Each structure stands twice: as structure tokens, then as C-alpha cells.
Amino acid sequence: MRRVVLLTPGPSPVPDEVLKEIGQPLIHHRTEEYKKILEEVFDSLKKVFFTQRPVLIFSSSGTGAMEAAVSNFINSKDKVLVIEGGKFGQRWTEILQAYKVSNVVKVEVEWGKTLPASKLQELINVHKDVRAVFATLCETSTGTLFDIKGYGDVIKKRETLLIVDAISGLLSDPLYMDEWNVDVVVCGSQKGMMLPPGLSFLSFSQKAESFLERSDLPHYYFDVKKYKKSLDNKDTPFTSSVSLIRGLHVALKTIIDFGVENMFKKSAFLAETIRKIFVEAGFTLFSEYPSNAVSSIVSPVDSIRLIKTLRSRFGVSIAGGQAHLKGKIFRVAHMGYINEQDLLFGMLCLDKVLREMGFNPKCSLASKLGEVLNESSNY
Questions:
Q1: Disulfide-capable partner of 165 in 46, 136, 233, 314 (CB 3.0 to 4.6 Å)?
Q2: Do the strands 184-188 and 200-204 form a parallel or antiparallel pair, or are they unpaired?
Q3: Which helix H or strand E contains 188, and what residues bound it?
Q4: First-to-last C-alpha distance (Å) of the chain
């Protein structure tokens, strides 16, 4: 069987010990044995989010947690501001529109660029009645990092929520929820958390909790108050994803033993290294403010064909561009369990396919990556 190498910004590779735990025989989700696992998972998630506040778990992709963030903390009459710097910034707007929140101020940021905190301050000065700002830590579609700490400073003394999609950025890009005055953070399982898709997470501040009572939007499964009430009893309100939670239990132990700060350093080292070798080989980086989670590269060939060939011939998966960037960029992730060996093999295959497609890099990506890794002690 051919090995599959995932260098995509989700799903990302899953450690063998996590896969082994996921494959264990099922246990019932209302037993004391399972509640003990949940209790440890809930405590560990706080360390990953850098918060003392509750972290809820939904059986959904990250978009489910995004929907919960809208439907539980927003009133239909609220004015909200959405920072749209890519496909997933736009998703905030699409969810708000689905819930018929009509007063949405869209801040359109050119893809690959970011919004300075000073610009958000100017916008808040104009829209003084904004009740929530929706932002993205890492805009996955472009690999661009946004200044969440700066945004928190702008609105921390206002009756305005800062709601952040950290689905691809968590555990790669620093995010200190409490210290940075972030009110709602959402995340998914299939990226930095080193799990298959299927779980999402949501944490909320004390200020955000006060917004729960004023929301008039409908919700049933994604009812934050139900989850908060169950969490107080170390339980979930609906049937839990038992196997994935058991895998999460092991993954979180691995992450915490390694160190959350070391996860940031690891992703930063791999990100900086990958971007350096691409530039030396004659490529252009797409994002002006790159994330540690994923690097976006302007493709010198049709990236749709490039990605298809890599996957079909070598089992190497990288990501392409979305919307108007289809065929124009490709994206290489360095999040979660992705390591040097994965990237070396990926670069070796990328070298070969690029040359076959008529583009000769100034230097071998694989050789250059090997040189950098040999010279580095570690992260």
C-alpha cells in the first residue's frame, strides 16, 4: 500500500497512537469511565486555548462551531463587523446572512493582505454601535495571519465581542485567549489538534456569556447554554463522539507533554524554512503576512494539474487556490503532526513534477530543505 503524505491545511496527519486509541472498542458515553476522560479533555483544552473559561465540544466540523458562535451570541438586530480577507472570512458573513442578521458591515481585505489594528480602530470609531467583530486568526485560503492581539486591544473596553475563527491557526500561530481579550474562539479537530475531522470547539469569555441572554437567533443542537450546563457535570447534552474524544484525549496529552509553546515554535520553524527555500528556488510568496500554519506560493504552472499529479502518482497532498485563485497558487501546510520527513518527501516529489511540467526551480527544493535541516539543531 502506498503511503499518503498530507501536507494540506486540514485534514493533517494523525499520530499512530491517536489512531490506535480511536480504533479501540466503544464504551458508553454516559458511564463514569467516559466522564473521567471528558473531564481530563475539558481541562486540557483550557491549556491549549490559554483560558480559564469553559471550552465546549461539538460533533461537527469547525463550521458548526462558527455557526454556534453566531446563533448564540448575536441578536438579529445587532450591527456586526466582519473582516473578510479570504474564503473563511467570507464564511462568517455567509453564516450571518443565513441567520438573517441584516446589519453586517463587511470589511473587504485584499486576499494575501491583512487588516492593521489601527484600521479596525478607525472602523470602530465610525461604527460605534457595533456589537461584535468577526475575525480569522489564519485565513486558510491565503495562509495570511491577522492581528488578533491588536484587535483585542481595540475593543477590550467596549461592549463589543471579538469572535475569532482559529480553526487552522490554533496550535500553530500564538493565540492567548484570556490575555488577548478574545471573547469567542472556535476551532476544529483536523488541523493543529492532530485528529481526523469531526469535532469542533468553542470557548467564550465572561463578557460573551452575558450576550447569551440577549440573542434571539434560533439554535437547538448548537445551544451553548445546554453544553455549558452539561459541562458543569463533566458531560455532554447529546450523544458524544466517543471514539474521537478518546483520540483527542491522547492527542492533547501528546501536545501538552511536548508543550503548547513548542508547538508554536515547531510550526514557525517549519514555516520559515519552507518559505525560505521557495524564495531561493525562484518562487513568489502569495501572502504578505504569512501564518505559521500554511504557506501560499504563487504557482509557475497550473496548480490544479500540479496538485492532481502529486496526489495520484506519489500520494502527496498539497492544497490549491480557492475562488479566483484556483490554478494560480498552491498551499503547503506545516501544522500539527506534519514534520520534516513529510516535507522532505513532499519537496522531492514537487521538484520532479514541476520539472516535468516545464518549470525548473533555481535549486532543488528537497536538497535545499535538507541543507537547512542539517544545519539546524531543532526548534
A1: 136
A2: antiparallel
A3: strand 184-188
A4: 32
Q: What was the pLDDT predicted at 378?
A: 64
User: Which residue reads 500500500 in cell numbers?
Assistant: 1
Q: Are strands 329-333 and 319-320 parallel, antiparallel or unpaired?
A: antiparallel
| Contact of 156 with 129, CB cutoff 8 Å | no
Q: Which residues contact 128 (CB under 8 A, 6 or more apart)?
A: none
pLDDT digits (tens, 9 = 90+) for 49-68: 999 999 999 999 999 999 99
Q: In whole angstroms, what is the distance from residue 296 CA to residue 139 CA?
A: 11
CB atoms within 10 A of CB 3: 9
**pLDDT recorded at residue 256:** 98
Q: What is the pLDDT of residue 377?
A: 67
Q: What is the average pLDDT across 264-269?
A: 97
Cell of 157: 473596553
**Tell me, what's the pLDDT at 376?**
78
Q: Give residue 14's pLDDT band: very low, low, confident or very high (50, 70, 90).
A: very high
The number of angstroms, rounded, from the C-alpha of 244 to the middle of its chain's C-alpha atoms is 18
Nearest residue to 108 via CA among 131, 69, 81: 81
Percent of the chain predicted with pLDDT > 70: 99
Domain boundaries, the chain: 5-10+259-375, 17-257
Distance CA 120, CA 33 (A): 47
Number of other residues whose CB lies within 10 A of the CB of residue 323? 10
Sequence-ordered alpha helix ranges (H) in 74-205: 87-98, 117-126, 148-155
Q: Tell me if 172 sits within 8 A of 263, measured CB to CB.
A: yes
Which helix (DSSP H) or strand (DSSP E) does residue 66 occupy? helix 62-73
Q: Are 329 and 286 in contact (CB under 8 A)?
A: yes
* 153-202 pLDDT tens trace: 999 999 999 999 999 999 999 999 999 999 999 999 999 999 999 999 99
Cβ partners under 8 Å of residue 42, min gap 6: 54, 55, 57, 231, 234
pLDDT for the residue numbered 227: 97
Say if residues 209 and 183 touch (Cβ distance below 8 Å).
no
Q: Which CATH architecture has domain 5-10+259-375?
A: Alpha-Beta Complex (3.90)
